[in-house]
Amino acid sequence: MTADLAYLIAGASLLLAVLLPDLLRRWAISAPMVLVAVGMLIGALPITDGLPVDVHENRALIEHTTELCVIVALMGVGLALDRPLWIRRPSTWWTWTATWRLLLVAMPLCIAGIALLGWWAGLAPAAAVLLGAVLAPTDPVLASDVQVAGPQTGDHEVDESDELRFTLTSEAGLNDGLAFPFVALAILMATEATVGDWALEWLGFHLVAKVLIGVATGIAVGQLLAHIAFRSQSRALRVAERGESLMALAALVTAYGVAEVAQGYGFLAVFVCAMTFRDAERSHDYHAAMHEVAERLERLLTLFVLLALGIALTRGLLAELDWRGVAIGLALLLVIRPLAGFVSLAGLGSPDPDHARLTTGQRWAAAFFGVRGVGSLYYLAYAAGKVEVSDWLWATVTFTIVASVFLHGILATPVMRHVDPDRRTGSAQDG
């Protein structure tokens, strides 16, 4: 019966993947909202009684499914960004100012704020830091409504002009990897006896070396695959000429695998690999084809994860949730992230047309839309394989994700339309 039900859920997932995007286009309802709700309805049916939904028994499945979902999303995000970032050209780094501020100021503030609330709620210091690290990064999977649509290609120099969507997309692409050192910090705090036993290891290896290895690996794999795809002497290897878009999957798996074997951060490697590959031939139509493959696979994986999450919600996943967990989740979404994000973006209303510019409304939007999602589930499942993770932590993280899905899903369309003067003007002219 369980196998038959699995086929039914898989069929429903595929059908929703085909129908939902166009059905919801004119409504302020996101596909993740519908998927979680459908999953909850399925979970409430008696036929789902035999489904294995216990997070502890299925920890490895949760970890690897969400891991794959995130790296596929990161590949798509890296290919979608039109704005270049070249190590040897400082001017390109300046155009990413808003991204750096969200990563280096807002994310640590969010981790600290959540950790303090967790400590106030009675968590041990290690568990409190873990909660902060798990919930702080924005999600590249569920934030599609506020991200750039895809790569611009053609016979012109491409550069992302929508500063708000670029900021939210680039932040989601980078902070999943940059949150990993803080997950490692929580694990070390829980498993090592004293600070002296782990402080240097964390600073030197987890915070610095693994980041550098991930970035270097991404650049190397991206350059190698781009050379093969676009400039190989063998025509059979120049896959870009024949539009073999499955190169996207080969690239993301290779970059992730090499980085992990080299003990770097695979999430960073995949994102950097995608951007490096894009830089090789920025306007080539091949990038759009690769992005489409990554986007479709991401959609299917997300459908599965969100349906499973919805089923688990009505099968006891939130049984340990109390007012403390609700307070922490809502505080993050409504207070901590918006304030931390806005503070980090202060002063970016620069009149310089060549650099990062955000209106006050756009800065608030960039601060508010810190979507929580699949990445948080991955980090928690990963940590649960190293240390004990309580049902309360699972319930609190899950509640925050679901609250983010509905809160940000409802507000994404109207808010993004309101803070985008070009779209408002266009709508008025159309009317």
From TrEMBL:
It is found in: Cell membrane. Pfam families: Na_H_Exchanger. The chain crosses the membrane at residues 6-24, 31-48, 60-81, 102-121, 178-200, 207-230, 250-277, 300-319, 325-349, 361-380, 392-415. One of its GO terms (molecular function) is antiporter activity. It comes from the Bacteria. InterPro entries: Cation/H_exchanger_TM. It is a multi-pass membrane protein. This is NhaP-type Na+/H+ or K+/H+ antiporter. It comes from Nocardioides thalensis.
